[in-house]
């Protein structure tokens, strides 16, 4: 046996797989883990810097820097993509590539696939970094990247799955630990979500239209959006928690049975909850009710996972005082518990009526992102780097300082945003004793929360400063050791299953990855199918309205500019059936009004007023001045100016192609209209410029501002409601 130990102590990749006395020696690939770790830190800093920038942009419009590539509307999706897919995405790969090898007692299936996964993912992130500031976006939240990048994401995700399942197939440990179940469910569900939501028809290389329209597009998008949070920000991190927490605490998982219940109930229930993002919208009531019911049910499996994590620390709480890794993990799991209690609460209709479209939702999301994802990622990095470099962490004191800076950052971020959210929700609904809106000017509600936006920005600075301390600490740690790129290990060809699990009813599936994959896929498909089939097949879910017509060619170009500038990040287009909203905006929105909207633009946050009934409310000149200098029309406005819309021209070469694609998707454009699309466009544009000229405003008909005005003036004008009908 001494010879075998000597072999392990001196790694030699040429001897991988050598059988010595029934024990195989092999090598774990630590280099790929290190690479993903570095990428995690790099993109984390980039995403957080952009997040801090946009936080201050909402407090002071001058921080938009006066050019079209750095406005809040353009770079807000860059922040979300960088944090979710770059920072958290690389952290997932880092944790999975480290833990999967050790749980399977096998090197990753293919080093080439590992490298392809790494570099492919980084190139996708770079593509997002280039395209989103250019305004190349679909506008669909967490799915803004255009179709060529969607295809690249699919290919890289397949590479990851191939590598993962290949490793599981050649494992030396027959029993699949609970973390692997979550990895399998993550891969399968993200693949389904991405493919279904990314159904789109290309117009040009960087422009497409969603295959779904209006209500149906909204249902698919929030089925995707909610479950991107569930199966990208939650399930893989739960798998990582089940691996790294017991390792860091040197304690077994509290309850194996609870982990089984946690896994299956979570993946089955989560997939149904998407419609709770669309309460009081034009989505059919039955779908909204399904979302509410399953969202409330979600608290049970979510808290089951939190309790399983915290109780794993029984007998190790004394270590929490000294060990920064455990500190980060405890707060991460607690933040997960808070966010998964708040989510079901926010899905209750009476709470949602106050909270939705406000900064309360922003606070809720960031408790999860900064606390759960951020802190668990930091814990993994602090735990991994000393082991990858065979040394000690450079400074526990610095790591503890990072912990307290990060915790303060979360508090400075979340508390002001909760306050802002409560303020907004209540001010929007406040009536006077005479029965009129107390704050009829939406801007009054915005000005009240500007100080909270400054405090939120300070919270971001505190959180980010802790990350810079971590970078220094990890760098010094790496410098004090040497990367063990190929870590030697030994294991029998197949390790017999652990005795305590023998005969357990669940053990048969834990040893069979394909069965696990099949049943996990069935569990996640049921909810989506139950929601989608009636919504798409039964026409009464989206009643048509005869007066609703397709957009004119000029309005369509204006709508695409609205998408390009990211206006949907601050403005909704969904008037809910509340008296406070119909008094402020006009008649509530109907499902049939959106049948030609590819993509839907209902929005999810009101930093500015809802725009669904803005058409005809103001003259063309008001929109002209408002886009050129928002404060000239709305003193104190935090909206940036858009001077480039007055200088740049609409790309007329795309008009006909856009109409043809939309006709393929069912929008009833006549062939003759398509053939003369640009002539019709210029005819309507000249009418608008002639009207502007009456007020001394000279503007070229082909300029982008004219198309934007045309679109804004169209919004909500397809239906006419008589006064007596409103009263009823």
From TrEMBL:
Per UniProt, what is the membrane topology? Multi-pass membrane protein
InterPro entries registered for this protein in UniProt: Cyt_c-like_dom (IPR009056), Cyt_c-like_dom_sf (IPR036909), Cyt_c_oxase-like_su1_dom (IPR023616), Cyt_c_oxase-like_su1_sf (IPR036927), Cyt_C_Oxase_1 (IPR000883), Cyt_c_Oxase_su1_BS (IPR023615), Cyt_c_oxidase_cbb3_su1 (IPR004677), Cyt_c_oxidase_monohaem-su/FixO (IPR003468)
UniProt key word Transmembrane:
yes
Its name, as the record gives it, is cytochrome-c oxidase
Source organism lineage? Bacteria, Pseudomonadati, Bacteroidota, Cytophagia, Cytophagales
Which residues does the UniProt record annotate as the domain Cytochrome c? 553-716
User: Which BP terms from GO are recorded?
Assistant: aerobic respiration; electron transport coupled proton transport; respiratory electron transport chain
Q: Which cofactor does it need?
A: heme b; Cu(2+); heme
Q: Which SUPFAM superfamilies match?
A: Cytochrome c, Cytochrome c oxidase subunit I-like
- Tell me its family: Belongs to the heme-copper respiratory oxidase family.
Q: Which GO terms describe its molecular function?
A: cytochrome-c oxidase activity; heme binding; metal ion binding
Provide the reaction this enzyme catalyses.
Answer: 4 Fe(II)-[cytochrome c] + O2 + 8 H(+)(in) = 4 Fe(III)-[cytochrome c] + 2 H2O + 4 H(+)(out)
Ranges for domain Cytochrome oxidase subunit I profile come to 36-493
Binding-site positions, heme b 2; high-spin: 364
Keyword set, alphabetical order = Cell membrane, Copper, Electron transport, Heme, Iron, Membrane, Metal-binding, Respiratory chain, Translocase, Transmembrane, Transmembrane helix, Transport
């Amino acid at each position: 046996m001494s010879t075998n130990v000597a072999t392990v102590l001196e790694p030699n990749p040429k001897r991988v797989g050598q059988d010595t006395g029934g024990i195989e020696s092999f090598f774990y690939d630590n280099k790929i883990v290190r690479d993903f770790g570095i990428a995690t830190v790099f993109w984390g800093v980039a995403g957080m810097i952009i997040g801090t920038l946009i936080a201050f942009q909402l407090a002071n419009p001058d921080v938009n820097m006066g050019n079209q590539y750095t406005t809040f509307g353009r770079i807000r999706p860059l922040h979300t993509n960088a944090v979710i897919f770059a920072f958290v995405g690389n952290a997932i790969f880092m944790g999975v590539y480290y833990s999967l090898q050790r749980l399977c007692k096998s090197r990753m299936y293919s080093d080439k696939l590992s490298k392809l996964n790494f570099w492919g993912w980084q190139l996708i992130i770079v593509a997002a970094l280039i395209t989103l500031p250019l305004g190349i976006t679909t506008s669909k939240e967490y799915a803004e990247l255009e179709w060529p990048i969607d295809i690249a994401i699919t290919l890289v995700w397949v590479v990851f799955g191939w590598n993962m399942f290949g490793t599981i197939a050649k494992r030396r440990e027959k029993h699949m630990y609970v973390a692997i179940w979550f990895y399998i469910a993550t891969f399968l569900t993200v693949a389904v979500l991405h493919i279904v939501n990314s159904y789109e028809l290309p117009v040009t290389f960087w422009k497409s239209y969603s295959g779904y329209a209006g209500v149906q597009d909204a249902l698919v998008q929030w089925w995707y959006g909610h479950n991107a949070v569930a199966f990208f920000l939650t399930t893989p991190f739960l798998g990582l928690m089940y691996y790294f927490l017991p390792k860091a605490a040197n304690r077994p998982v509290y309850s194996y049975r609870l982990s089984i219940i946690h896994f299956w109930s979570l993946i089955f229930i989560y997939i149904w909850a998407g419609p709770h993002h669309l309460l009081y919208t034009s989505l059919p009531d039955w779908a909204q009710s399904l979302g509410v019911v399953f969202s409330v049910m979600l608290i049970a499996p979510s808290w089951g996972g939190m309790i399983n994590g915290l109780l794993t620390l029984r007998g190790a709480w004394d270590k929490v005082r000294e060990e920064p890794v455990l500190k980060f993990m405890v707060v991460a799991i607690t933040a997960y518990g808070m966010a998964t209690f708040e989510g079901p609460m926010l899905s209750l209709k009476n709470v949602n009526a106050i909270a939705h479209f406000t900064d309360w939702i922003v606070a809720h999301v960031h408790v999860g992102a900064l606390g759960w994802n951020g802190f668990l990622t930091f814990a993994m990095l602090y735990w991994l780097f000393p082991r990858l470099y065979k040394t000690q962490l450079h400074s526990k004191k610095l790591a503890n300082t990072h912990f307290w800076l990060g915790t303060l950052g979360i508090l400075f971020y979340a508390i002001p945003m909760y306050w802002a959210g409560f303020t907004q929700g209540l001010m929007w609904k406040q009536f006077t004793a005479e029965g009129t809106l107390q704050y009829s000017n939406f801007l009054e509600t915005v000005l009240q929360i500007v100080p909270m936006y400054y405090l939120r920005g300070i919270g971001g600075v505190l959180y980010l400063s802790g990350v810079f301390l971590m970078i220094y600490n990890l760098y010094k740690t790496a410098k004090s050791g040497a990367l063990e790129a190929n870590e030697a290990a030994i294991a029998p060809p197949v390790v017999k299953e652990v005795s305590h699990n023998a005969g357990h009813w669940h053990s048969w599936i834990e040893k069979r990855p394909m069965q696990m994959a099949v049943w996990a896929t069935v569990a996640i498909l049921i909810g989506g199918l139950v929601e989608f089939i009636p919504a798409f097949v039964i026409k009464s879910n989206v009643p048509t309205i005869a007066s609703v017509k397709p957009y004119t060619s000029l309005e369509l170009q204006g709508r695409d500019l609205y998408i390009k500038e990211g206006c949907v990040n601050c403005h909704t287009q969904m008037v809910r059936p509340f008296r406070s909203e119909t008094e402020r905006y006009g008649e509530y929105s109907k499902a049939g009004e959106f049948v030609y909207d590819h993509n839907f633009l209902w929005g999810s946050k009101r930093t500015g007023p809802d725009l669904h009934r803005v058409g005809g409310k103001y003259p063309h000149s008001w929109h002209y001045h408002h886009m050129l200098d928002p404060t000239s029309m709305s003193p104190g406005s935090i909206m940036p100016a858009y001077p480039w819309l007055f200088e740049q021209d609409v790309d007329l070469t795309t008009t006909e192609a856009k109409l043809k694609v939309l006709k393929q998707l069912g929008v009833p454009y006549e062939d003759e209209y398509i053939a003369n699309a640009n002539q019709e466009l210029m005819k309507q544009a000249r009418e608008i410029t002639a009207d502007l000229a009456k007020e001394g405003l000279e503007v070229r008909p082909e300029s982008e501002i004219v198309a934007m005005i045309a679109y804004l003036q169209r919004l909500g004008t397809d239906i006419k409601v008589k006064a007596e009908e409103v009263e009823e």
